[in-house]
Amino acid sequence: MTITLYAEKHWDSPYVFTTFVALREKGLGFEEHVLDLDAGEQRSSVYASRSLTARVPAIDHDGFVLSESTAIVEYLEERFPPPEHARLLPEVMQERARARQLLGWIRSDLMPLREERSTDTMFYERAGRPLGPAARAAADKLLAVAGRLIAPGATSLFGSWCVADADLGFFLHRLILNGDEVPASIRAFAEAQWQRPSVRAYVEHPRPTKR
């Protein structure tokens, strides 16, 4: 079995993060193939035809190429199921649905916050100004949702870890790393995610210097 993870060269994509963490949590060895998105390597005829959407991340599992991080998570969960491999999504159906809801929401909402607290501010240069009104409203929405989902003192949303924990923790670190206010209980949850070995492996992954 061979698995290749196609990633972007700066290793600051939240979607590459999800896929990287999923592979590590499953205990699957994989090779890394970096694409220069600024140079348009993702649009090369070979990669575009194989990945279908010409986006990263993608994985190549023994010749089967799949892009889109949530699709990859679902594939890995079914192809390498528990108990032989660690679980990525909750066992209980309603909790699994809620985790999928959270993954979808994180990818489709809160755009002003994603713009003003981009992943560049997490891994390269911190934001230089306070949140504007639209980003502040998005941050408030994020914290409100997190506050409803995270039980007091909990380090996981559904009793045991799932990939939605990592994704929420990653998003919350857009605020935490830039010094924005985050309630203590939510911060504790996010910081627990940040210390998970699979997450640390991504956070500490070598990155090129940005010009």
General description of the model:
The chain is α+β, with helices and mostly antiparallel strands and 211 residues long. It has 2 domains: 3-85, 3-Layer(aba) Sandwich (Glutaredoxin), CATH 3.40.30.10; 93-198, Glutathione S-transferase Yfyf (Class Pi), Chain A, domain 2 (Up-down Bundle). The chain is built from 10 helices and 4 strands. The protein has helices spanning 14-25, 45-51, 69-79, 93-108, 111-116, 120-123, 133-149, 163-176, 184-194, 197-203, and strands at 3-8, 31-35, 58-61, 64-67. The protein has a 4-stranded mixed sheet, covered by helices on one side. Strand 3 (58-61) and strand 4 form a beta hairpin. The radius of gyration is 17 Å and the shape is globular. 35% of the residues are buried. The model has no long low-confidence stretch (mean pLDDT 97).
- Strand % is 5-15%
Alpha-carbon distance between the termini? 38 Å
Indicate the multimeric state: single chain
CATH class of the largest domain: Mainly Alpha
Mean pLDDT: 97
Shape: globular
The largest beta-sheet arranges its strands as 2-1-3-4
What is the domain tally?
A: 2
Rg (CA only): 17 Å
- Give me the count of strands: 4
Estimate percent helicity: 40-55%
By CATH, the topology of the largest domain is Glutathione S-transferase Yfyf (Class Pi), Chain A, domain 2
Briefly note the structural class of the backbone.
Answer: alpha+beta
Largest sheet properties: 4 strands, mixed
> What's the SSE pattern?
EHEHEEHHHHHHHH
Features:
Glutaredoxin; 211 residues; alpha+beta; four-stranded mixed β-sheet
